[in-house]
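Shift notes (night). Ran SnoaL-like domain-containing protein while the centrifuge was going.
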Amino acid sequence: MTDPTPVVDRYIAIWNATDPEDRRDLVAGSWAEDGAYLDPLMKGEGHAGIDAMIAGVQARFPGFVMSRTGPVDAHNDRVRFTWALGPAGAEPLVAGLDVGVLAQDGRLASITGFLDKVPG
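Came back to this:
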């Protein structure tokens, strides 16, 4: 496996891309066509479903920024990493751990998210 950190960093960039065209381009370049995202609160399937899910989060939390909060751990075709979401320069309101599977071409096949911190 090549270093998966750039794939994960592109994934984080998708969550921060507020221009719909830029976000769709990032999704297409980072996710397999049949990619799927799942966490306890939402899911998205395929490029359109993942894009719509992220757009919904951005609408609910306008101006929030997602960042990776630790190193990317990987083996075989699996990755895991921690992240946080909140206003720039402020304490994050949401944080969690994601576990992903990489497709043969190096793009994301799936992400399963675990939420460690959510707003009340």
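The first helix runs from residue 5 to 16. Strands lie at 31-38, 43-45, 64-68, 73-75, 78-87, 94-102, 108-117.
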